[in-house]
Inverse folding.
């Protein structure tokens, strides 16, 4: 059984971290009394596997004395139940900004007249637990996606990699931009098969159209540069924690050039090992 204790400063992102951990397959419990932690562990260890990975969120709401929590953690060790402590913190300025934006009260606001005093008091109260932490994450300048990626790095061992779903779609500019697109590339500068009578009724999925488009030196260089760019970008998006990416390739009508390029690009991205879908939004439109 794996136990992860998430604690730290109020406003540092504990709830968000617990939500991400839940997505990773952990069973999450918020503010469980310390005395019940060993009992919960016993339940999990005796169960059929539904509580094999557990996240417990604890903070100053549990009281200023963490000796009860430490006693519970020592009991977990005696039970041979592995656990780790993730301590989350942020700068005072960041926490103040977050509280002002959310307009929520600090858990210690009843004991302090000012938010700054509550934060300093909490830092003092949480210091003993921070000293025992296995991992410390400062979210002051950490984007949400980066936090998700860091949690996967720390606690995602043994999980099947989700990877990033890439969707490549062709479209015609005369029908408007795809609203969901993350990256848009305009291929209207490439030779247009529309002006070749025998190719006009065909599409970029037909070999004669693809041969015509790809015979151009501009197409060859464009694809080389685009593929090189994506070879660099896609792993960066994965590292950022992005789970889905929509790449849109546009020409005038969405029948010829964009379709041919999108199809070729899909094959390239699949060869890189990404889950890839191919769509042609405007292929049936006039």
């Amino acid at each position: 059984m794996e136990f992860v204790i998430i604690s730290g400063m109020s406003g540092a992102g504990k709830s968000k971290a617990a939500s991400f951990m839940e997505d990773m397959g952990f069973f999450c419990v918020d503010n469980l009394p310390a005395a019940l932690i060993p009992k919960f562990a016993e339940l999990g260890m005796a169960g059929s596997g539904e509580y094999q990975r557990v996240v417990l969120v604890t903070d100053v709401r549990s009281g200023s004395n963490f000796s009860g929590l430490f006693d519970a953690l020592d009991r977990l060790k005696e039970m041979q139940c592995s656990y780790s402590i993730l301590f989350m913190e942020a700068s005072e300025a960041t926490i103040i900004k977050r509280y002002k934006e959310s307009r929520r009260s600090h858990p210690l606001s009843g004991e302090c007249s000012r938010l700054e005093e509550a934060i300093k008091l909490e830092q003092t109260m949480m210091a003993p637990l921070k000293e025992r932490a296995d991992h410390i994450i400062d979210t002051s300048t950490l984007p949400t996606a980066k936090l998700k990626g860091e949690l996967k790095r720390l606690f995602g061992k043994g999980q099947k990699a989700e990877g990033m779903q890439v969707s490549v779609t062709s479209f015609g500019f005369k029908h408007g931009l795809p609203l969901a697109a993350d990256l848009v590339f305009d291929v209207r500068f490439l030779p247009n098969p529309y002006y070749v009578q025998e190719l006009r009724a065909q599409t970029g999925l037909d070999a004669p159209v693809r041969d015509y488009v790809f015979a151009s030196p501009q197409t060859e260089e464009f694809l080389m540069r685009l593929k090189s760019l994506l070879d660099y970008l896609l792993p960066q998006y994965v590292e950022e924690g992005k789970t889905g990416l929509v790449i849109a390739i546009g020409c005038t009508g969405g029948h010829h050039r964009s379709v041919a390029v999108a199809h070729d690009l899909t094959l390239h991205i699949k060869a890189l090992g990404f889950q890839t879908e191919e769509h042609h939004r405007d292929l049936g439109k006039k």
